[in-house]
Amino acid sequence: MKNCKLISVVTLLFMGLSLKTSDTYCPCHPPWVAFNQECYLIVMQKMSYQDAEEHCLTYSRALRECHLASVANDEEYDFILGLAVAASVDTSGLWLGLNDRLNALDFVWTDGSTSSYRRWNAPNQPDNNNNCGRTSANHDYKMSDATCSTKLASVCKVRQRNV
């Protein structure tokens, strides 16, 4: 367990972040970063929304599905923004696991989360023209919907492994 905490602290210090790690879960292995019993990975390779979700799914393991990141609250959203800034994600932003591909303006998370958290770049977001959720510096680091074929960096999220 001490080794897991050391890896997490070194990773966070390298990224300029300081966060508490849980004593119940082993923090994620670099380049994944732990936060609130979840593991996050910034994927710098630019992909369409569907390709990014499929890429995240390749990290799934038994009983631990990996998806584009859902967001539960301001604390988690700010954590993801911190990762994006530390990784030098360009101003066009990164994909989140939010989309309204099935029903216009009915945004859902790819991981099935029921979180109603949204930090839209109001008043013009979301609009009825695009279907996939992102965050970007171009929108004051708030959420906006974009054309799903746009190629962006992304953030994957998976539950930490119980030790």
H/E element sequence:
HEEHEHEEEEE
Poorly predicted runs? 1-25
CATH top level? Alpha Beta
Provide a count of the helices.
3
The biggest sheet amounts to:
8 strands, mixed
SS-based class? alpha+beta
Q: Overall mean pLDDT score?
A: 84
Q: Give the beta-strand count.
A: 8
Beta-strand percentage range: 25-35%
User: Rg to the nearest angstrom?
Assistant: 15 Å
Span between termini: 9 Å
The geometry reads as globular
Query: What share of the residues lie within helices?
Result: 10-25%
CATH architecture: Roll
CATH fold call: Mannose-Binding Protein A, Chain A
Count of all domains: 1
CATH-level-4 superfamily name:
Mannose-Binding Protein A, subunit A
Protein name: C-type lectin domain-containing protein
Organism: Patiria miniata
Signal peptide: 1-22
Keywords: Signal
Describe this structure in words.
There is one protein chain. This protein is of the alpha+beta class. The chain has one domain: Mannose-Binding Protein A, subunit A (Mannose-Binding Protein A, Chain A). The chain has 3 helices and 8 strands, in the order αββαβαβββββ. Strands 1, 2, 3, 4, 5, 6, 7 and 8 form an 8-stranded mixed beta sheet that branches. β1 and β2 form a beta hairpin. The longest helix is centred in the first third of the chain and has 14 residues, at about 1-15. The protein is globular, with a radius of gyration of 15 Å. The N and C termini lie close together (about 10 Å). About 35% of the residues are buried. The model is unreliable at about 1-25 (pLDDT under 50). Keywords: Signal. It holds the Pfam family Lectin_C. It comes from Patiria miniata. InterPro entries: C-type_lectin-like, C-type_lectin-like/link_sf, C-type_lectin/snaclec_domain, CTDL_fold. This is C-type lectin domain-containing protein.
